[in-house]
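hey m, so remember when u said the tokens were messed up on ur end? i reran from scratch. heres the input so u can diff it against urs
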Amino acid sequence: MMKTTRRELLKMIGAATFGMALPMEVVDALPQEGEWIPYEERWSTGICLQCPGGCGLRIRSVNEWPVKLEGIKDYPINRGRLCPKGQAGLQVLYDPDRIPSPLRRRGKRGEGGWERISWEEAIGLVSERLTRLRQEGRAHQVAIWGGRYRGHMADLMARFLGAYGSPNHFGNRARGSEGILKGHFFTMGVKDFLALHWEEVRYVLSFGASLLEASRPTVRNLWGYGYLRRGRPGLRGKLVQVEPRLSVTASKADRWVPILPGTDGALALGIAHWIVKEKRFDHGFVTRYTFGFEDWKDERGRAHMGFKRLLLEEYPVGRVASITGIPEETIVEIAQEFSSHRPSVALSGRGVAMQTNGTYNQMAVDSLNALVGSIDAKGGLLLQRQPPFSPWPSVELDRMAKRGLAQPRVDGVGSLPFP
């Protein structure tokens, strides 16, 4: 007697119920046992572009149409994981409102009328207009607003616009990340984002970084947060979130420190004041890798205040408390923990940088990492390593390009108010 399992019984009941609801001609047209609708399956790899995180992707395609996205298991950033935004990449691809080709305005501006044109026609129209503006001596009136560039695209755009004769090249970073990058450059001489060494850090002091919501790379940060808490038996790391609002990261942190908006830099310098005053900083790192910690004189013999004296005279804890709205004892407690629970690291988010004093805020936060020796060090902020590419050849500028580049940028960058 043939045995029937519970699973097989449920299959038969389901099939019978489904078949009763179908006309006979439809049932006859269904594939029979052993028959399948033919299709071609292919897996390919790529990089997710839903955010700047750059997670590794595996794409399953059926008959050349992508149908599934997964993370690459051995990819160092996401380790096989993919966030909901990454999974939504298919929705972006198949969105009915997606613009797959160039559009040209039809009718008057503001009427919302558009018509599709070919890429060849679009390139021809743009080339014709660019040529006319340059011949009229108005090359500087052309601007390129770039998106989230990858690879060498930003360099290529800047070189093209420079050779054309316009200084007006804008990018996505101007909306919030430029203050962070400028702060890194003025304190460390690098122009890139830095990586948090989650595997070794013990204490994370976050100035508004949305580590668990949207701070790049989000998937790695989510993994890193879990590892900070439970990845090392007997060693639980700590996360302190400084932020005006109770964000998701603040609610999950070990401690949330509310602060008045825009005063993050003052808090960082107040913490630095206590660390320097109590001689809790990394003397070896400061001596070997920093300049201007003590008072110094330039080549003309003029005296300059050093960072140490600036902290001790201008940013006592009591004054910082009145600026930030944070109690003195809280500032001291954070300074004690940050300087003793090493490796420790301080980092910031867009809320800190998107202020009129955003670059200075970031410089103050970066100074904390210098004081505890957490710049490009185990458990600290790691610098990006760039492949040893050959430098770009210089662009030869003609007379019209030089004249256009001599004009001021429309956003004022490079002028006295915005150096």
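this time it looks ok to me. The longest helix spans residues 119-135. if urs says something different then somethings off w ur setup not the seq
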